[in-house]
Design brief:
single chain, alpha/beta, TIM Barrel, nine-stranded parallel β-sheet, 11 helices
Length: 216
């Protein structure tokens, strides 16, 4: 199963990042981006919320029941308890903002795809050696193209995803640097569009992102 999810991520090239979106609003969002051609969704743990484990677990369970056969994952995963809660809720991949060897190994032990975050060459290689399937270079938007090129050049055998500040305007440029894929947050899961129920625009944004990726 993990190999199938890895291949799906490589084929899709994009994971939509959903923060603080739950219930019917989350379901409507996923329906909209799916119509636009994006299938992969990360539901994050809001670490400031004492009820984040319950909320994220319920969101993942709802998505798996509503969208049968799709692959959903959990993001901002910082603890073993959160890994296990996501696994129990049907998550297929675990995404973190940091490199934590224990989290990576536990994720793999449970048969899920591991996508830890890293910023430096040491962190990237540490994550890779610990068993990460992809390494999330974060925060890409702040690091800049020059830094990314220099970091990726000697370790281009590691599959990396660009996350942090990725949008429709810079997506093609980031993909040209050699990333396997990207994680996109507010450019897709836009709070203003959600509050105004502008799901047709969200669908169109997903379609535009899909078109950009198909050309890169």
């Amino acid at each position: 199963m993990a190999q199938e999810i890895q291949k799906l991520i490589e084929q899709q090239k994009v994971i939509a990042i959903c923060r603080k979106v739950y219930g019917a609003e989350l379901s409507a969002f996923v329906s909209a981006i799916e119509r636009g051609g994006i299938q992969l969704v990360e539901v994050t743990f809001d670490q400031q919320d004492p009820h984040c484990v319950q909320k994220t677990s319920e969101a993942l369970q709802m998505l798996n029941e509503t969208f049968s056969g799709r692959a959903f994952g959990a993001g901002t995963v910082l603890t073993r308890d959160q890994v296990k809660a996501a696994y129990d809720a049907g998550a297929k991949y675990i995404i973190s903002p940091n490199t934590d060897i224990e989290i990576i190994r536990y994720t793999k032990d449970l048969g899920m795809v591991s996508i830890p975050g890293a910023m430096t060459p040491s962190e990237i290689i540490t994550a890779h050696h610990a068993g990460a399937d992809f390494v999330k270079l974060f925060p890409c938007g702040s690091l800049g193209a020059a830094y990314i090129k220099e970091v990726m050049a000697p370790i281009n055998h590691i599959k990396m995803m660009a996350v942090g500040g990725i949008n429709m305007e810079n997506l093609a440029a980031f993909m040209s640097l050699g990333f396997t894929g990207v994680g996109i947050g507010s450019s897709l899961c836009n709070r203003k569009l959600l509050s105004e129920n502008r799901f047709n625009q969200i669908e169109e944004n997903a379609r535009r992102i899909r078109e950009i990726l198909s050309n890169n």
